[in-house]
Amino acid sequence: MAPVSKASEQSATAPQRPGDGRPARSAPQRALEKLGLLRDIDLALHLPLRYEDETRLTRIADAREGDAVQVEGVVSDSRVDFRPRRQLVVRVDDGSDELVLRFLHFYPSQQKALAVGTRVRVRGELRGGFLGREMVHPAVKAVSADTPLAEALTPVYPSSAQLPQAYLRKAVASALLRAPLAELLPPGIVPPGLPTLKDALTFLHHPAPRVPMATLEDRSHPAWQRLKFEELLAQQLSQAQAQRERAALRAPALQALPGGRHERLLAALPFQLTAAQQRVAEEIARDLARPQPMHRLLQGDVGSGKTVVAALAAAVAIDAGWQCALMAPTEILAEQHFRKLVQWLEPLGITVAWLTGSRRGKGRAQMLARVASGEAGLVVGTHAVIQDDVAFAKLGLAIVDEQHRFGVAQRLQLKRKLDSAGVEPHLLMMSATPIPRTLAMSYYADLDVSTIDELPPGRTPVVTKVFADGKRDSVIARIQAEVAQGRQIYWVCPLIEESETLDLQNATATHAQLSETLPGTLVGLLHGRMPAAEKAAVMSLFTGGPEDATGRSRASSSSAGGGAPQGGAPGGPRMAVLVSTTVIEVGVDVPNASLMVIEHAERFGLSQLHQLRGRVGRGAVASVCVLLYSPPLSDTGKARLKAMAETNDGFEIARRDLEIRGPGEFMGARQSGAALLRFADLTEDAALLDQARQLAPRLLASHPQAASAQIERWLGSRAEYLKA
Ligand code: ADP
Ligand code: MG
User: What would the CATH number be for the domain defined by 54-152?
Assistant: First the structure.
């Protein structure tokens, strides 16, 4: 910082508001815009990072080493020393003691401004130096004996190089006077003891002297509490509003018929539902039977058996004369669902259609016609299912698998699709990633949640081993042994986000290496940039082998899909090893796969590792997941791999993931369209969140206009995204 800051503070001018004559925007104005500080309210909510205390003076004799203090005295000596290096050394005397100011960089003008006899106010951290008390590069201001002290703490704002603090301070101070901060909430809503929003903000920008700094830093001061309460309340209001809007909508009441298809499906399944599956299936059936649209999340760890629950719901809807759509985030996953659902539902006389982005031309036109006529009871696919040209005759139930992996735009599109009809379809979302409790209470407050907390019986837990890259050869030897026993193996290659090309090279190289080391074994390669047909062919060679756990060929899909994915050739060669990039991440179901190797496991997120690992351990065979990493590991890398080795429990994994990455990352696509909470912290402010949760529905009922204004002030256009 420049030794004498007075000049620069005076040169700052308040920002000009764009208007007549279109004054050229200054660099600081452009910098403000870049930070998103456009409106008065934006500036008013731009809170200080920290404060400087210019409200009081400390006697030099009383200041202790390490203190950040402001002192005032007269320059008693000023000279340029040359040893140990060139520097300006100034002595200031305040009558109690002397202080040495040291400037390693300085201009002649600064030297002149610090001439002997000048009265200066000096702010900085006190150090015990060679010559006694000293400050290095303190902030210095020339004053006269009657220059008043600051009346409030001086805010230091988050800023950028082009935006001087002094400029920003003035801009914020004037915006604070103009910003629309009138109290919106009726009396009795704000918890007692908290100031108005306007007072809270005024205080946080200019705190009174001697306020305990710790209460500002840890945000426990009532002014902070008020701000956080406002924000949490707005968020809860928007959730409550969404819930009310939905309650006002009409949906078809889909009653399960006695002796209907869902009962026949249950009877035909080669297994019994687990107690947890039964419970969630009943929860869903109850929702479907109501004339309001269901809005339910079905969460269950990988392999817990969500698909069959979805199929049962679809059977109910179709029996009631409505159509059902099932959408998955990737083509491979959609295809897995398609096969399974065809196998389960076609024997019951249900026509299953198949729609993806890669399907064009005549086949697509035919498919669309089947959807439009109502002939297709169930439509399975990627987000192609909700494209504008897809018109359902009577859509009664939409099922979205791994919904958090869809982008915000796609979720909004789905919402539009659902909103367009006179009668709303029911919505069932499925996810293998459980929502942590705090998020469930806040961002997902308007969602009903069903949880499958039990795996089907007979699964042997996957054993996870972590090895450094150096062990690669012994891992390959292990593969050989597994193949010899008729088992199948996944080898997953790293995700290199910056470069799809590198991704591919890596997978290709590994594929070549494994093909060479495992002669006589069919080693396949799968990556995201392969044409869909080729991907499907590779997948079916791997999934469609003759030795299914049930002894039957798993590939038998003749269906409405015409050009739909074909099963593997029964009796043909079975692919033993599948080398793949992360395209297999979700949903692939090959019970005979007993070993998964994940290369460069340190580059994957925790939830993703868990999802990948869920591809093995699907049958009765004991399965192993090998995590290869290349040292050195970062701390978070270490934490992730350790968590993987320690637990198979998806809920525990999600909890640790949240701990390691924070909620922003956790919400994945959701955060891209919607800023997370700016001021409140879901963990620390659980008590405020609770209050806001209880108040929101009451406020919405008694003061709907105030509620809307509150949502608008805090969420504005983001409210739509938060509901997506
Ligand atoms: P996820 O919840 O990960 O989507 P899936 O629905 O793919 O799990 O089910 C995993 C495997 O478990 C599938 O092969 C499925 O047929 C089978 N499965 C589902 N429910 C049961 C059950 N109750 N008993 C035995 N196997 C089941
Ligand atoms: Mg699944």
Answer: 2.40.50.140
Token reading at 273: 């539902």
Nearest to 674 by CA among 412, 299, 388: 412
For ligand 1, atom 13, which residue shows the shortest CA distance? 305
Check pocket membership of 617 for ligand 1, CB cut-off 6 A. Answer: no
pLDDT tens digits, residue range 411-466? Answer: 667 767 766 557 889 999 998 877 766 677 777 777 889 999 998 988 888 999 99
**Could you tell me the pTM of the whole model?**
0.69
Domain range summary for the chain, segments of one domain joined by +: 1-51+161-177, 54-152, 261-452, 463-647
pLDDT digits (tens, 9 = 90+) for 601-643: 988 888 788 888 988 887 778 899 999 998 888 888 888 999 9
Range 261-452 classified under CATH 1.10.10.10: no
The H or E element containing residue 92 is strand 87-93
Residue 417 Cα to ligand 1 middle (Å): 30
Burial of 517 (0-12, 13-18, 19+ CB in 10 A): middle
pLDDT tens across 164-188, in order? Answer: 999 999 999 999 999 989 888 888 8
Q: Which of 272, 308, 455, 592 to mutate to test the pocket of ligand 1 (most atoms within 8 A of CB)?
A: 308
Q: 308 CB less than 6 Å from ligand 1? A: yes
For ligand 1, is residue 300 a contact (CB within 6 Å)?
yes
562 dihedral zone (left: phi>0; alpha: psi -120 to 50; beta): left
Q: What CATH number does domain 463-647 carry, 3.10.450.50, 3.40.50.300, 3.30.70.20, 3.40.50.2000?
A: 3.40.50.300
Q: Is 298 in the pocket of ligand 1 (CB under 6 A)?
A: no
Atom of ligand 1 nearest to the CA of 277: 23
Ligand nearest to the CA of 589: 1
Cα dihedral value 614, 619, 624, 626, nearest 10: -40
Cα–Cα dist 79/90, whole Å: 6
- 212 Cβ contact list (under 8 Å, min separation 6): none
pLDDT of 574 above 90: no
Residue with CA nearest ligand 1 atom 17:
305
Spatial CA neighbour of 314 closest among 432, 396, 401, 430 = 396
The pLDDT of residue 606: 84
Are 345 and 265 a contacting pair, CB within 8 Å? yes
CA of 306, closest atom in ligand 1 = 2
Which residues have C-beta under 5 Å from ligand 2, the single-atom ion? Answer: 587
